[in-house]
Records
---
Amino acid sequence: MKTTPFYRSVCGAILIGVLLAISACTSDRDIYAAAPESVRERIVQADKLIGQQKYLTAFESLGDDDSDYIIAKKIAIVLKYFVASDRHLDFSLKDLEAEEDIEELRLYAEMAPPEEMIGFNPETAVQEYAAVHGMTPVLSAARGLYYYDILFFAPFDWVLSEEAIIQRAHDDLQVAIDADVYNADMLYKYAFLLYANHDFAGAADYFSRSTALDKKRGDAWFNYAFCEMQQAQYDTAIVAARRAVACYKNNPDYRLEAQLIIADAYAALGKYSDAEKQLQKSKRTVTGSYVPPLRLGVLYLHQGNIAKATHEFKTVYDANKENGDMFSTIITQYIQNNQAAAALDFCNDYIASSTDDLNMAMWYFFRAQIEASLGQREAALISVDESERYFLQTDGENTQQFDELREYIKTITAAP
């Protein structure tokens, strides 16, 4: 399963995939270690088959649901290796050929789901075993991971609401962890659920515990840093984000995300020089990314250095004019940092250097809004007229937006 940084996430939350190591040290735990020897042998045999990509055979080799460990292992197999899923209420597995890829098979299965499923419902398997033998922490762990997976793979109209799924996953994983049945992945996913409930302190703690068991988890380091940022624990966030950077040495997109956390933390600490150095460095991480120079421009605005901010903003806009929202994004940064006059200068510079009708219409439209915010009512009305004139020269027809802006401008009080 892939996860992504909090900025881009599923269910309002989470991070990136597991990538490269920053340390050769890992001390992850085996949740099947306490299984009876005969059960353990079946699990070991299934793992050998999994190593050969014989996922269906591995599942079948486990035999009857006569142990909580066996049920847990079966749930782990269907969640990680399913080819098709019927709302995660039943699954299809396959022994793969050497050239086959499970992700590609899933894409195919989404278009033409196979008719034959294995007839295994994790919820039912857990309930039936628990009805006879009682619920165990191992079953709680397995079912909690099952509910967690539903958040990513099941349809939005599943039999339970998203809130109920999150709660069930949280409760089951908590029972397992409290009973000392857990590994790094479980701690990570439990941390995600705490984050989903806006418990940043709890999430940070469990992301940190996950990294203690598996120091290779860039996603855990990143999310640990992110949660510490939410609590203004900037020094800790810097340390964790640097570990994420090291993990993502071969993935520039994710490495950039972690570098931006470091820059934000330095800026929050008032260490603007360190923040600037980090952003300058991050410019080289992903060639052509507009994010580092845009953030650098914002940093300069925070320091009142308008000239440097404008230089960065012009670099961003000139390289990304095809992005229809970029001009608005930059103007918004000026306004949010109480630099409306600088925003006006930014507009005027482009108006003076272009003859493209559509761009001129856009720039004049923004200029009108900025002038209005400065109380320059007459100038704003003139800019609206110019914006509409250029717009009509592009064969534009709907001029309602200009009339609405004029009406708004007429309501403002002119500056003295």
Note: Confidence is low (pLDDT under 50) at residues 1-25.
---
Amino acid sequence: MPDIKCPHCGNLVPQGSSFCNHCGAPLDQEIQCPHCDSIIPANSVFCPVCHEMVGKQTDGDNPDAAAASQPGKGNHTTRNTIIILAVLAFVGLIVVKQCFFTGTHNVTPDEVSITGDNANSNTIDIFNRTLEANNLKGDGDKIAYAMRVMDKNGKQDKIIGVTYLNDDQHPFYKIYTLTPNGANWDIKLNKTKYLNGYNIVFDPAELRAGDNLPFSDNINGKNYFYFAYLCMPKNMQGSVGTLSAVLFDIEAGDVVTQVDFTGTIATNATTGQQELQVTTPPMANGILATRLKDWASNIGFLHIPTPEELAAQKAEQEKEAAEKAHADSLARGLTTNNAAAATTASDPVLLNTGEEAKMDVQQYDKSKPLFRADEFSKRVRGGNYTVFLLKNGKVYAFSKSSNTNFEVHFGGSGATDIGWEDSEKGIINIRTASGRYQYNLNTNTAKKVG
């Protein structure tokens, strides 16, 4: 009895086997013709494509069968065959149970088939031929993913496929479900999503996702298909991008959860690689969204800054804002540009902890305001002074006795809060991201105290 090819992994298996002894896939639904490689019903005697014999031979054509029918012959062969088939069936059940929907995404190479220039997967071939047979490739879309899935009992055989197109007008992706129907596959379009204005990236290598994309998993007794893609601005006109992680319910045939990471596409200063830098990660409500967010965090193209990185970014932004505000003041003629004032304003950290210095102050007549009413975030009154904290981090004071305004150069930059230390003596506390300062408005001396 000749061996046949397993339609799932391509290895030779004994004719009549219920399960493949290499990949564990069931062989009772369809087989691959050993002559023309077509997928045909498992109970076929002759291939309907090439008309060669693939099933059981008659006793006249098979001398071994004729000999086995004679008394006393073939008994040992029959018994051994039964034992081998029983062992293979037991091993096959174990393999199927471990490979399909056991709550993990460690899968066999043929279970997940990812398209590429050199892709030669049977799963992708089935998906591609089914699309062509049903005239579903007219849009010119390409195959992004094709994955063959079964339930934990190895009975339900499906292919989940994703195609996409980066069209100038209406880029999109589509999700299909394929189910076997004899020697052919039925196909259903589950979802079409348009992403106008973006280039869509599915390639796991470009996303630096390794073997973590895509995969299937069983969560609370339901089977899901997970994949992700990146949306980048067309022609790179803008630096904002979004990485979307998608969870597809295989039985329901619909997307049930999607988590979007939106950030800035930039070059990592250490690695030199492009990445999506996400300052504020999305919220994840529920088990599915939380699981999806955890999976997406393993994609190398996605970078979520640590608290230390966020603090450094904030300090840099405050410094840039202070420098811009100072430049704006110079342009409006509200701040002098003498040497002392320029040194104090441009240096973000002038004083070290415990150091004290006298500041040069330029007094302005009250008739010449230094800022607008909507530009300050806090005001404190006390003694002879009223002190203002501006939204750009600068501090200004008004002296009642001299009826003048002046900028408080306190030895740092980017003030975040102000409050009196001693209003009668004119000493005010100024808090910044880099520490706390005290400024004496009567003597114009500044000291870093923490």
Note: Residues 5 and 37 are 8 Å apart (CA to CA).
